[in-house]
TrEMBL record:
Annotated GO biological process: Mo-molybdopterin cofactor biosynthetic process
Domain (MoaB/Mog): residue spans on this chain: 178-314
InterPro entries according to UniProt: MoaB/Mog-like_dom_sf (IPR036425), MoaB/Mog_dom (IPR001453), MoeA-like (IPR038987), MoeA_C_domain_IV (IPR005111), MoeA_C_domain_IV_sf (IPR036688), MoeA_linker/N (IPR005110), MoeA_linker/N_sf (IPR036135)
Name of the protein in its database record: Molybdopterin molybdenumtransferase
Broad class of enzyme this protein falls into: transferase
SUPFAM superfamilies for this protein: MoeA C-terminal domain-like, MoeA N-terminal region -like, Molybdenum cofactor biosynthesis proteins
GO-annotated molecular function: metal ion binding; molybdopterin molybdotransferase activity
Keywords attached to this entry: Magnesium, Metal-binding, Molybdenum, Molybdenum cofactor biosynthesis, Transferase
Cofactor entry: Mg(2+)
Any Gene Ontology CC annotation: cytosol
Listed CDD domains: MoeA (cd00887)
Record-linked Pfam families: MoCF_biosynth (PF00994), MoeA_C (PF03454), MoeA_N (PF03453)
Length: 397
């Protein structure tokens, strides 16, 4: 149990013990950022019929293969008011973007290619194939599965389900994530510090990350270095996932794991063979989970990206891009390592990864410019400038 496990094994155990949350029905106006509790099946076909992609004239392609064809305009088809008559040879219908093609029409002559004279239109060019027609169902069809269970409702997803004629959705509520700091030396931001005291800097950043991943962060405050204090914070918290930070190393005053065990949490794993973040641990009690992070800021942030994010998003495969090293790297040690790096596109179009020169796990400042993590296998040889490396994006390019 105490032997560090590989990163991929840890991710597999997280997936096996994923969060299970109750669902509820909400209107679309309240669904942004929520996660679907069931698939979304389209109730309509979009578009429901062939429609015009441009303003112009609906015609029969056979009538306009040669330039100069003159057709009789017999009606109008604006969006929302279809022309119901049958288009016969030699006829055209004035149509606007989104308007349904009348029966018999299979082509649009755009208005830029037309000359109008009274109730007649002259086509200035000929056409070899149908143009400017959006076929029925080109976007999606009635009965089509548009989104799967677990999908996060982004602005694009909400527009899609609205177009599919859903006014309400069954969603899981946001997981409540309790962030618990631990240490007699810690004080909240804005405090006056005495010698030996430090600011609890982790909670603010972790709260922002958790919210960005669809969680509802809850600051559980700072527990002192005693079992009683930790137990008091744990037993009074109503959360789905505890994220204790610190208090899980090998010191005489590190009581975090023991406090959760005493509260009935069953250990799943206790260490990961990863740098930074070896003391990361995971336990469960019923529907509740606890993912303990190291106390050093860089370790906490890196491990939050690697392990907290999958628990909240439901995606347990770490997304990876291939980049080119902008500078050499030394050989790696016995643990898989994730190096903070700036990932950017060179003037030549190469995706470059430039590792921060100081990877000290106590440093926060390198995260200001780091938007990626270079992933290095255990015992990886030295990496030369120009070598290909996998990177995980943790920010915008």
């Amino acid at each position: 149990m105490n032997r560090p496990i590989p990163v991929e094994q840890a991710l597999g155990l997280l997936q096996e013990n994923a969060l299970t949350l109750p669902s509820r029905q909400v209107p679309l106006s309240e669904a942004a950022g929520c996660r679907l509790a069931e698939p979304v099946i389209s109730r309509v076909t979009q578009p429901p019929a062939a429609v015009s992609a441009m303003d112009g004239f609906a015609v029969r392609l056979a009538d306009v293969r040669a330039p100069g064809a003159t057709l009789a305009v017999i009606g109008t088809a604006p969006a929302g008011t279809p022309f119901t008559g049958l288009l016969k040879p030699g006829q055209a219908v004035r149509i606007f973007t989104g308007g349904h093609l009348p029966p018999g029409a299979d082509h649009i002559v755009i208005q830029e290619d037309a000359e109008i004279s009274g109730d007649q239109v002259r086509c200035l060019r000929g056409y070899a194939a149908s143009e400017f027609v959006r076929a029925a169902g080109i976007d999606f069809s009635e009965g089509e599965r548009l989104l799967n269970t677990g999908a996060i409702l982004t602005p694009a997803a909400l527009s899609l389900v609205a177009a599919a004629n859903h006014g309400h959705l069954q969603v899981t509520r946001r997981p409540r994530v309790g962030i618990l700091a631990n240490g007699d030396e810690l004080r909240p931001p804005g405090s006056e510090l005495r010698p030996g005291q430090v600011i609890n800097a982790n909670a603010a950043g972790l709260s922002a990350l958790i919210a960005s991943w669809g969680g509802d962060p809850v600051d559980l405050g700072i527990a002192s270095d005693s079992m009683a204090s930790i137990l008091d914070h744990v037993q009074s918290a109503d959360v789905d996932l505890f994220v204790p930070v610190g208090g899980a190393s090998v010191g005489d005053h590190d009581h975090m794991r023991a406090a959760f065990r005493e509260s009935g949490f069953e250990p799943i794993f206790e260490k990961i063979a990863v740098k930074p973040g070896k003391p990361t641990w995971f336990s469960r009690r019923g529907a509740q989970r606890v993912l303990g992070l190291p106390g050093n800021p860089a370790s906490a942030f890196v491990c939050a990206h690697l392990f907290v994010r999958p628990l909240l998003t439901g995606h347990f495969v770490l997304p990876s891009l291939t980049a080119t090293l902008a500078a050499p790297l030394p050989a790696n040690g016995a643990r898989e390592e994730f190096l903070r790096a700036r990932v950017h596109v060179s003037p030549q179009g190469l995706l470059l990864a430039d590792a921060a020169p100081n990877q000290d796990s106590s440093l926060l400042k390198p995260f200001l410019t780091a938007n990626g993590l270079i992933r290095r296998p255990a015992h990886a040889p030295a990496g030369m400038t120009g070598a290909a490396v996998p990177v995980l994006l943790i920010g915008q390019l």
